Fold each of these.
Amino acid sequence: MTETDVTQLLFERMQKQPALASLESNVSSMISQLRDPTKGTRELVNPLLSDVALSQRVLRLANSPMYSAMSQGVKSMTSAVSILGSEVLLHLVLSATVMSAADLEDDDALMANVLAGEVARKAAVRNHEDVCIAVLLYDLGVIMASSYLPDHLAACRLAIAGGTPPEEAERQTFGMTLRELGGRVAARWRLPREIVSVIDGSGDPELVGMARASHEIANGLLAGEGKLEQLLSRLPASCAQRIPTILAELEPRLDVFRHRFGQAAPASPEDAEVSSWESPEAIPESALRNFLDKHGAARILIFRLRENRFEVCAGAGESYPKLRQKLHVDLAGAPTAFHLAHRSNSEVFIEDLAKSATNVLPPGFWQLLSSTCSLVVLPIKKGSAAGLVYCDWESKHQSSLGLLAALRLFRNSVAQAFKH
């Protein structure tokens, strides 16, 4: 399909959502208000009053434990908006256009967006509001494809797993990159060209780089990928001289963010007791089972790469002995979620396996894991050694930064047992 065909298909599917028209209008109106410093809270509130469901979400969030220190029985939209702030309000409006009610309850996504906006605001010398808005919309193309073009997105990810470079795979599948797809949606919402150009990547390289880096820094920080000082190095070179100032201003606020948004505490020490593990095979089943119990998972499996094949070397959970004997992943086989995790060195989370393509799992996996509903695959790379951590649930389980942070910490612990 050409980019025109894909765009037309996307817009046709969007139009079938009855509530989307009013929500799109809210997005356009709110962004216009946010870019005008002469507008106050009342102007932000007025476009939302006609949307009962969105108004309820705003009031519920303002009265939630996350804002308990600042709110006491908030009943008016004006008070709620004053407490939440413009970035949080915009997040709710944007999210409502593409997310389910369950997804809107995910505090991790809200926390990541608010923190990304903070990074962008501190880093930007000019166009502060445009960069902050673009940060909130950075993944718009991926979000819209996931919501309205899931088959295309699955085909794209399998092509990447098969070795096709990401941008090439996106162009083959969508006729354009996902960033450009997001730009098409933003243009449909009549957003200013300055913001659209940051979203689709065609704009000022410094602003585009700042939006991307702010997004990566916030998600990386909240997922435990590194310290703030290390992650700030991802900002464009033009921001290098401001990094000490940004660090000094943001570092004291991190605890406030974690407390305010109820971020899960880091994994407990037993999740990292790896000093005595001589090899992946030596990882005690009790340590793996402890992880399962903490996170309500059904199975966890550790795969090790041996002669172009991933084989189960440790694990715990239902049917583990049989799975250890029968499960393996051939690198030369058709691309699957396991190949994607290994080749792209990134996590693969499947929330509802029943809605996924049949080739998302290697041959034989469907029969052996017939009760699986959600799963995640994380890569392990240590020198020349490679492996995978696989975890699944038998009920629908949503991805969150807290869960991914715990999985990454556990994966990092397991990786210590892999020798060069």
Amino acid sequence: MRVGFVIGGIPSLGYSGSTLASWTIVETLLRAGHEVTAVLCPAGYLLDETVPGRLEELERLGADVRIVEVPEPGPVSRARFVRSLAAPTDADLLPAARAADGVRRALDGVDVGMSFGIEAIAATAGLDAAPFLAVLSHPPGVPRRLRLRYDPAPRSLLGRAAERSFLLHADRRTAALLRRFASVGVFSGHHAEWARRHGVNAWYAHYPMPDLAGPTWRERRAAAQEGVERPRILMIGHLRGIGTISGLHLFVPEILPLLTEELGPDGFEVHVVGGQEPPAAFREGLRHPAVRLRGQISSPEEEFFAAHVLLAPNPTTTGASARILSGLTFGSCIVAHTDSVIGVPELEHETNNLLAADGPGLARETVRALRDPQLRERLGDEARRLYEAAFSPPVAAGRIVQELERLA
């Protein structure tokens, strides 16, 4: 079976949850004996110095890699701009739709196709050469609304009008695009229900994650934590990503002061791992004796193993959280916001993690876990068991491969 795999990025090990998941799916397809034509439509801001190496890795994996550029929109008249606000086209809302012709040519001869993410969905919704499976985490309006709430940027009057138009139209247009696909996997039980309510043939798909920890995860966890002097908390994620920013809104003014009150300013460490500088609003609050800004780390395995608690305080309603799924692979003791259940409904308080709905609750559960090594070990073991049962490549990516085989 020849599979056309379309994505608005570059599958690779590292960089983000979507690159990890897409790499895992491509690898699982190839290991199952299928051919993969990887059609990549990356946005311009993704084209940095790492791209050539990542493309070479994908080719060495065995994929036939094809790059399709997203055409520029060209000059836009005032009348055309006004029309794009009142009655936007697919390309006005989702620019990757302009790449549809190039993607069609790149997919010539495939038996079945897969569109990973909203950009790929926009570029392939009109294709009829082969049956297609679409996968996504959430409607595109969800992160935009979160950004407006937690990280609003100054905008001109026209910019605010464009944002309002997007929020008004994007989710409904996405549902219309998804109805054109033979099958739609959604990496969130909650958002899969949203899709079904809008007439989409949708099902809850588990987000595939590679085994970042390996078979000796338990021994490596024990060895790493044995050498840690103070109770250590890990917070990980791109510091300008909306998930991280929303979590900082709870961590800096609420969680960190309560941890300091309970443990003392020098009685614990918080390792903040992620690219970019934190937003200006939080920089002063993060100048704290316990906080270590580690920056971007290409191989964060030791940070995960050495942390006594993985803290994910982000109150976001997006799909499955890559930071939580990564924690599952390492057998981390996870303390997370209750909103995390929207993306990962298998999370159960006291069973495989600790959940709380606000800053004081998250601080309380973190302190509890730091003071109880048996609790940490039990929750970490159950977290790893959940990963193996639901999100490991044979299970999660295997289910997607089965669906593609069925469609073909």
Amino acid sequence: TYNYSVKTNWQDGTSKTDVVPATILACPPTLTAASGCAADAPGGPKIDLSWNNLLGIQNYQIYRKAQAEANFSLLQTLTDAFYTDYLVQSLEYTYFQGGQVSNYVKAIWPTDQKDSSQITKDIPQCPPFLTVQSNCDEFSIRLSWTATKDATHYNIYRDGVYRDSVVGINSTSYIDYQDLSSCPGQVCSHTYYVEAITPGSTLRSNEETKNINCTITYPPSTPTLNTPSAFCSAGFSYIHLSWTPSDNVSYYVLYRDDGITLTPLQGIETSRDDQVQSNRDYTYYVEAVGRGGPSLPSNTQAITSVSCTTPSASTLSYSKACQTGIPTITLSWTQTTNTESYEIWRGPSSSNLSLLTAFDKTAPEFTSRIFKDANLSPSTTYYYKIVSKGPPGVSSTNSNIISPTTDSCYPTTPNLSNPTPLCTLQNPVIYLSWATDGANTTRYEIFRQDVGLIKTIYPTDPEFSSKNWTDNSGLLPSSPYNYKIDAVGNYDFQRATSGYKPVTTNNCSPAGAFNLTDPPNL
């Protein structure tokens, strides 16, 4: 809110300053989206989102509805005005099936929020993104790539010559075993690319050149352990781990801080730890093992396993208010167990609710469990519920549904007392007074029916609190007048009027000269 003032100066040196508050409107972000194919790792289809950066913003929330999903869900919370959604990572098991992705951005201020328009993009068909590793344990070069939508098979090329093919859209790896004819002396270099064959086109991957030298037995290169994820499946707690591939590897060994070791299959860079207890901290690292011995240990990653119990139900309550002429509803809810995020759903009826906003553990609202909804219409009933979201694979729980009706946010109608005629220095004046609690009132406007608006009283004026004013503006004696008072809210259309009340001025002229005679004798 900003205050604007107008200062009036008179020729006699006096002046008066009137101050009017104005609230700058919260405008929704303008979202743009572009779909494309990532030229660098991780490759595959991507959606680039960007929007205008807004003044005073607390953060932005990105919501997404992908492919067959029925509702939007929170994808990311951030303060930047751009984001790239790499679908190979965020839709790991379905990105190659095509379909559409819809997004919108929610701008969040401390006391308001606004949604951008929704933008829907087709998931593009992208060429394979190729990575290669050498392996002297089996004297081979291993290839892996991202899947391509509608691919029936993939052709593998080495040094520009067709080498082999694999069938199926998910057949995205190949081992090119070397021999002394293709790699004399076990030292050579090859360049590879992959073609995805679809019914309508052929899409070629990036080229990757790999050197291999198996005359010396090297230990595997050190893998990088990615951020693990915890989830539930069929009521059991699991931790999913993955890491970057190493050269010269026969197999990988995962180490856990409590002495448990997990040995995945040869050539597999993922593992699922099913020997975990709920709500327990674990730390992992991985080593690659080959003919040259083990690699150096990878980086460590810590994670807390999740409980697979359903979150408890919260109890939702509310309070109502008006903020600079805008109705607000403040929601508060009780804490729930085993909850990763809270979703607020709102709608025009209990059977027609949609996702309004969501708060994960990084949001202050997750801890305070208080949210002020200021994007509302006056005198309107809204329905709300809180959805407590558990860990992945755990069912959500709904709170009770509430149905508050917003306030009108109009000022309280002033009760104008009957105007009182008085005399001041032999001039007629009218004394006005009124009663009101002053709710939602930013100024009073006093009207005299013969001339219209004659006085505006602002909060800085003493009459604003005393609720009285005297009209001495050229009134005629013994003449009828009508007065009314309007209480005005934050917007000019927000008015409450007392209605006109009549009054007749006094004749304030002094009495004329007269002679007093003695009374007659009786």
Amino acid sequence: MGSAGGRAAQWRAAVLKCLTAVVLATGAYVFYAHRVTMLDQVEDIVAGPRGADGTRSGGAREEMAKDTPSGLFAAEKLFERALTVHARNAYALVALADIETQLAGAGVDSRASRAAELRARAEVRDIALPERFEARALALLQEGKSAEAETYVRALLARYPHSTGAPRLNDVLGHALRAQGKVREARDSFRKAAGGAREARFTSDLAEALIDEGSFPEAIAAFDRALQMSPSHPRAQIGKARALVALAREGRGDPAVARALLEPVIQAPDAEMTPALRARALAVRADARLVQGDAAGASQDAQAAVAIDAKLSLALKARALAVLAGPDRARGEESLRAAIAADRFDPSTYADGADALLAAGDPAAAARILDSAASALPKSARLSLARARVEERKGDLVAAQAALDQSLKLDPSSAAAYLVQGRIAEKKREFKVAAQSYARASQLRDDLPEPYARMGSLYLATKQVTEAIRVFNEALARYRATHAPPGVMEAFYEDVHSSLGKAGERKLAAEWLKSARAER
């Protein structure tokens, strides 16, 4: 047996080992507990605290998904807080980089440098999350590198075809395609994004693409879906207002409703709205005021929008249309050119600009604007129809018919195209074809007043006065139902009054006009 001292030494060694093990175990437990607590804290911030049913809600991710300025500002603060708790949290880093990049693109001060710094940190760590990829692609778009952005995103989609981030990537791909004028491919990409995830942002992007192609009712339905997902979503409010104004321009929408949608965006405090969204809202309100006949108010709103964003095509177009409401057609055409230079791929600038120039009595300038569209955009039903209207006004019925045939080939269900077809047939004195065209237009869109108004003129030409009055009243009912602007209503009243007078029915004309105005 060993000495007493040896045994004591052995005991001391054993105790030391036990103490060391306890310390190490305690340290490991403390580290583990700290890490678990830290991760729980981050999860509370990112996904929200747990409710009574165990589910989380109300966190940074949810705020980000709202796609509203207040939501992005709130998510920004929450992700910054998450990084103070866990400085190397990968998701918080890339999500914050994505938010800052979006805010920089929306014109929010001091976000560009911060966004670049965060993106660089995410790139160094090669964090394979959709938010990092989106942030980089958006930055490329902000730098005007749309082709590079497209290549980058397509490679990611090929690498991660079934990723939960695919909708986000398809959405940014849509923007890259739109920036290059590939409007149909862009619409399809936005549709994939909207179909892959229920987020207001993706649905609004699809709706804006639908406005580009002139599908206004479908766009309104999509914006309504976005507003269900994210109430008070500014882009959806602005976009829906824009579609309503476009319909009002056709005599079947209410610009007052559009303006009511825009007021909350325009009046919101700076802490709750981005400069880019406020500028867009002002530009669309300018458009609504033009439809209401308030050219002075429209000019003020357009100038205010341009003051915020001097390159905003919508604002430049509204300013041009306000100019064209006056006598200076040359300056109006020049202003339209500025709007086109800001966004060559917005069909509404060409179509609305050509219509405004026609209304101003300058079909040659309208034709020049549409010539510019031909070199920038693929053929579309909307632009072909605008060309048909211009050629009809110029008196070139052969060219008008050719453009109309192209429009109907691209969109056989266009009631507006059949209206133009009817007018062309009238000028050719092919009254049976004209009547058939107006009937077809009314079948496709029973809410349209114009087919009935035109059929009334045809009935008067064949002395069928009773039938003429009947369809004039049908047109009147539809103008009222669609809340046609006062200027449109007055033009209709005068047209019916004049047509009845020319048909030798002056007394009936006066009685009809008095009755129609009394029922307003």
